Amino acid sequence: AIPALLAGNHLLGVAQTGTGKTAAFALPLLSRIDANVAEPQILVLAPTRELAIQVAEAFTTYASKFRNFHVLPIYGGQDFAPQIRGLKRGAQVIVGTPGRMLDHLRKGTLKLGSLKALVLDEADEMLRMGFIDDVEAILSKTPDTCQRALFSATMPPQIKKVAQTYLKNATEVRIESETRTVERIAQFVLPVYAERKLDALTRILEVEPFDASIIFVRTKAETTLLAEKLSARGHAVAPLSGDLNQRQREQTVEDLKRGKKDIIIATDVAARGLDVPRITHVINYDVPYDTEAYIHRVGRTGRAGRVGKAILLVTPRERSWLRTLERATNSPMEPYQLPSPAALQKMRVEQFEAQLLGFMDDPRSAKAMALLDDIAERNELDIAAVAGALACLLEASQPDSLPLEQPEALPEVSAAAPRRDRKGPPPGKGGFRKGAPGKKFSKDGKPPHRKGGKPAGGKPTGKGGPKRAPR
């Protein structure tokens, strides 16, 4: 990609998320910047505010040695006034979402007379989110001499049409791989009944040595609900969805980067383009809507040479989709093994013991021992009995802080796909539709299921498969 852009050619880049696209277009295009001209020279369109911010930050980092160089992100959810002031002050690189970019063009606050290059980043995602008309409107306003680059994970017909119209004689670059997801990501699957998913998730978070984790759910409402449940269990967690205003969204991502939060509960759209080095684990609490969404999800870890781990929770009615995901990624998932109740209890006792011994050198320890000795002596009690009562007091004020009871075993669920009704769709149909953004499960929008609403084995599964909800 870099030689083609340096040569001034139009570029059509087909690559998965997390393959270093930003550096591939930012570095060569920066060589064309005239820092003495305080007008937009590079325009980058991104599908989400989060991705726009990250691309803007990348440009700022790459051009840290430039003088009189400015990058301005513009996106919806933010007041026009500061954006207009930034445009008037002058910025050589403008990064933003299509809708807000078009608003500024129509207002006359964004002028493209000095534009040298335009980049469409994650074009297929802009199509899926309904921005393609805005994108074409912006392209039509760019100078004929403007160099154009389009990056996309897939090439649906509408994206091909845009490329044919606006990227004449473009150099095409494809980043192919044997697996759709990078090999640095270890992928696991845990079959679980729907009503026990929270229990399974809690144990995963308890036993996995993660630095930071992103947990994907289907709906905005679920981000808040699950975040509240995990927060009540002592986790530093926050939701990330379209229901947050822009300042809240930016603060949430910043908290994750700085370690103030360790877990983010997110929808697919809200996490688009999210790149936080701390993320070591991706947990798919809900099965994604399509294979492209899954590939994007797990791509939030294992980026830029880092290693990562992805865990998928599947209910009995979702097991057939597992095969579709494995075909799409050309990468079979390993079974995820939770520790046995006895092993989990042993681990909890060891952790509690380590925490307890960590306070032995605490300056307050001597005063605490004297207090307990005094209580034991006045009441003619053994010191161990007093310590036991103190532990019970701690447990009463902070439930589950002591490993007093061995946890129950979660019901086992087979990883094998349930038998289909003979009248159902043939294998590979009616579930995910590989490589087709915007096309979801079966024609009625529901996942395939057995008659009677029960999985193989006859055990209840809760309320079925995913139904599209606002994200």
Overview of the molecule:
The protein is α/β, with parallel strands linked by helices. Among the domains are: 173 residues, P-loop containing nucleotide triphosphate hydrolases (Rossmann fold, 3-Layer(aba) Sandwich); 57 residues, no CATH class. The chain has 16 helices and 14 strands. The strands form 2 sheets. It has a 7-stranded parallel β-sheet, sandwiched between helices. It has a 7-stranded parallel β-sheet with strand order 10-11-9-12-13-8-14, sandwiched between helices. Strand 12, helix 12 and strand 13 form a beta-alpha-beta unit. Helix 7 packs parallel to helix 8. The chain is elongated and about 95 Å long. The C terminus is likely disordered.
CATH topology of one domain: Rossmann fold
Fourth CATH level, the homologous superfamily of one domain: P-loop containing nucleotide triphosphate hydrolases
SSE pattern: HEHEHEHEHEHHEHEEHEHEHEEHEHEHHH
Describe the strand arrangement of the main beta sheet, using strand numbers. 3-4-2-5-6-1-7
- Portion of residues in beta strands equals 5-15%
Radius of gyration (CA) equals: 27 Å
Features of the shown structure:
single chain, 471 residues, alpha/beta, Rossmann fold, 7-stranded parallel beta sheet, 16 helices, 37% helix, elongated
Describe the protein's topology.
Layout: H1 2-6, E1 11-14, H2 21-30, E2 42-45, H3 49-62, E3 71-74, H4 80-89, E4 93-96, H5 98-107, E5 117-120, H6 123-128, H7 132-140, E6 147-152, H8 157-166, E7 171-174, E8 185-191, H9 197-207, E9 212-216, H10 220-232, E10 237-240, H11 246-258, E11 263-266, E12 279-284, H12 291-298, E13 308-314, H13 319-329, E14 334-335, H14 341-357, H15 365-378, H16 383-397
Parallel strand pairs: 1-6, 1-7, 2-4, 2-5, 3-4, 5-6, 8-13, 8-14, 9-11, 9-12, 10-11, 12-13
